[in-house]
Design goal:
The protein has about 120 residues and is an alpha/beta fold. The protein has one domain: 3-Layer(aba) Sandwich (Rossmann fold), CATH 3.40.50.300. It has a 4-stranded mixed beta sheet. Helix 1 runs parallel beside helix 2.
Length: about 120
């Protein structure tokens, strides 16, 4: 395991512990939390799969947001992450504004992989 990956995983484990401490107060809201979303950048490589595994061990993730699809990155690794962890891709980010966060459309995503 590379030093950078090891550091990232250590950070995610700490983040998971922080999440566990922050989430209980929010749990007082009716039906909360409604979603726990793992945000991944389209530039994420195969290390992202290991990071996602570690993060989902410490939090009840219900879906994925894939960001930075407005550049040259295709975000193909998110398919492997979604499949292995059985998590739906909920949204994709194609820019920097709130209106650039779009519901995930599998057909559009697959077509963009071949553009």
């Amino acid at each position: 395991m590379t030093r950078a990956l090891h550091a990232s995983i250590a950070f995610l484990v700490l983040t998971g512990h922080a999440f566990a401490q922050v989430a209980p107060p929010a749990a007082n809201a009716p039906g909360a939390p409604h979603e726990v979303l793992l945000v991944l950048e389209a530039t994420t490589d195969q290390n992202g799969l290991e990071q996602a595994r570690k993060f989902t061990e410490s939090s009840a993730v219900t879906g994925i947001i894939l960001t930075k699809l407005d550049g040259t990155a295709k975000g193909g690794v998110v398919v492997a992450i979604s499949r292995e962890l059985n998590l739906p891709i909920r949204y994709v980010g194609v820019g920097e504004q709130i209106d650039d966060l779009l519901p995930f459309d599998p057909e559009t995503f697959v077509a963009s992989l071949f553009d």
